[in-house]
Every structure is written in structure tokens, then in C-alpha cells.
């Protein structure tokens, strides 16, 4: 396959030559200290590390793992692996030891870079014998075979290897809301296709600023931050931690940002913790004061320089999109999968259409199968699943379309609407099928409901399990619980009015436990694991149905 597009390493060398002294990566070191690395400094460190990797004399195309939260040296290690002719295998930084072992053994990784981690002692036992570890500059306490400083004693490589277009660049193990992670194989040309076309769509500039906080092993962050910066030349600011995130945002003042709905909701809930939703929304509607209030809120969130804000990886409610519009931030919804580099559909600026995601991205073909499944084809489609030709054949059609597993429809203008997951649709005891996602979106409009999961498999009617926001939880503990219940009953009535009879919710159940990554309810990309939620509360379902109360409180 000819080099029809510019490959990631080619782009890095071009940027390094063009502006060697331009600031590229900004890394917080704790205590208010920052490390700023230029393009030439990144290139120098990556080349030294690549020389060290070559010195291991591993077979070409060996798999090398990166286990770290986002940091500057995550990207530098990735570049070094590619320069040395190998394949990177990124792991989520919060996996348990069993999952670490599973990925490292399945990928047959020869080495593992270890960086910023919150609980290395829980992960370390998962490193198989014979897999040498290399500590990145920001690393946890522990015993490692090599330090990054050892790699930096090597002379930089003299050549500029680019890899070939059809060469495997990375294996991304999907986090998965169910089942065992699969290794998605992406080539350099897959990355190049998505990044080049994304650059045309987004019209990014070299003076743009990105903030990196979602796991870099997730395809959206990998494409938007790592590949986006290689192709667009932006400066990348890294977040230090969740505790410092707001300060990190204000320091970076990003002009471009990708966020999952949960992050954008968290911002909203943070604002609501300072002032009530009703009061803020009333102020925003006032002619002159509204603009001043909106500007103040944007500045308080570090969004005052935002030029392009993207939201994806999970369904997002219209109400959240409208709320950001009222602040002067147009959230553009994107749709994609690990299997196509996250590059599939995008809502164009100024073309918001309620209930619809947007149109196919440049170079993407979309069709709806007879079963109603969304299928897409482009140069970003994966090579397949690592060591799993059977699953690959199930997922990619003979004519090259990717089966997304999402049900959806397209309108005459090419806008896409998702109506649920083919496998997530459940059947009630009355034999009727229900798609939970659209109902969850309707419930998520309530300013005090932060997380929702609609359940109903083998039940006479569905019900919704809800986690309240911090403000909602405080109100529920006080004397305002009765008012809250009235508000939730009104919400339930409004939602049930627009649902078909078999979809109508029997009750809203307010659960006390907050669903988080740490307790296993969310994937590392903040999607709800439906099977975990259902298993956690299933023993109560029959009792809740029998009680036939519209609002239930589960402690």
C-alpha cells in the first residue's frame, strides 16, 4: 500500500523541523511546578529511548506496553516504540492485576513502561515473569528493571523511521461494558486517515491548546490529543489529578476539548453546587446580565477560550447541549468506536438538530442494515481483533463495513440518530422489547439526576435506577425530600407521556451508592456497566415491582 497520506511519525519529524523550540507538552510535577518540553526536546528523548529499545534486539513488531495515567512521557514512550519498529499496547491505569496479566499475556508484550499510577501495588502482581519494566519519570514507588534515565544515556538514533502505511501501530484493548476486552489492531494508515480528515473538519491551528485528562489509552483521547497534536501542532497541557482538574483547566484555558458526557455533566453540577439551576437559568435569559453571567461561568470553568468543544463516547441529552449553548459554548456531538479510531460522525458547528448526532465525517460511508444496525466504512476501520479472526469476521462485513452494534436511523440529509444498542435491548415479561438509552436521555434532563440506568429484563414494566448529584444527595438528606419527590414524579409523568405503553416506567429508584470506576460500576471511559448495575440491585427488583410506588429510595 502506497503512502497516500502522511503517517504519524512523518508528521512528528515535520513539526520538529518546522518549530523545534515551540512548546509542545506541559506537564505538572506537583507543588505548582511545571515541566515544559519543546518539540525538539520530545524528539531527542524519544530517539534516545528508541535506540535503547533497538538495543534489546527484539523481533520487529514486538509488543511493548504502556501502563500509566496521562503524562508527557506517555506520548514520548509511544513515539519511541514506533521509532524502534515496535507496536504499542496501552493499558488503562486503573486495571486490576488479573486484567493487567490478561492483556500482557494475550498481547505477548515483551516490555512495559510504567508511569503515573494511583495504585501500583494492586497492579504489579499482574506483570508476568519475564516482562521487564521501565519506570517513566513520573512513576509510583516500587522495584523496576530500568529507569527512564537509563534509556536517556543512549545516543539518539540518526534515522527518521516512519513505518509503512499498512504496518500495525498499536493494539488497543477495549474497556468494554461487558465481556472480555478485545485487542483492536490499528495501523499507521488508520491513524493517518482519521487524523488528516479530522484536521480538515476541525480547522485546528498551531496556537490551539489541548488539555489531556481522559485516559490516553482510550481511542478518543489518543486521536484527539496525541494524533491531533502531531497533525495540528497544538500545545498539550496535562491534568495533574481529579483534585486539581479545575486549576489545570484554568491554567491551560483549552481552545479545543473532547469530553465524555459525564465530564460535561460534572462541570454543570459543579456550577449548580454554587447556585441553583433555576436561579442560574433565569439569569442567563436576561438580555445584558445573561451574557455577563455566562462569561463568568465560562471563566470559572476554564472554558473562556474554548473554540471547539466535542462530546462523545456515550449518549448525551439535548438538555445538556442546550445548557452549554446558553453559556456560549457549542458542544458538538461526535460518534465513533475504538474499531474505527473514534472517527465516524460529527455534528457540524451551527447545524445542531435535536435528537440527531450529525452527519458522516469526511470519507466515511454509512448504511443502516435490514436489522436497523448502523454500519460504517472508511480508511479508519481497524485491521481486526488481535488473534481473533472469528470475531473479526463477525464484526467486519465481507464488503468492509464495520458492524457497530448500535441501532439507528438516517434522515434525508444524512444525520444519524441512535435508538439503542442491539444487544442492550431487553425484553419485558410481557414479551415487549425496550431500548433503554433513549429513555435514560429523557430522565437525564433533571438537574439533580447525575446517572441513570433503565432496567426491565423479564420484569412486567421497566424501572429506572438513578444516582443523584451531590446537590441532590444533600437535599435528599434534608427536609426537602418531599419537594424532591414531587419534582421526580413530575419528571416521571412527563417522560411516560411520550413513551409507548410497554416502555413506560413503573418507578424511579434513587440509589444511594454513586457509580464510579473505583467500585466497578463504570468503565475507565465513564460508561455505565449495565450488567454490574443490574447484578448489584437485581435481588430487590421483585420487591420494588410489588410495592408499585412511583418514587423509591434505596439505601
UniProtKB/TrEMBL annotation:
The keyword Lipid metabolism applies. It catalyses: a long-chain fatty acid + ATP + CoA = a long-chain fatty acyl-CoA + AMP + diphosphate. InterPro entries: AMP-bd_C_sf, AMP-binding_CS, AMP-dep_synth/lig_dom, ANL_N_sf. Residues 15-386 form the AMP-dependent synthetase/ligase domain. Keywords: Fatty acid metabolism, Ligase, Lipid metabolism. This is AMP-binding protein. It comes from Zestomonas insulae.
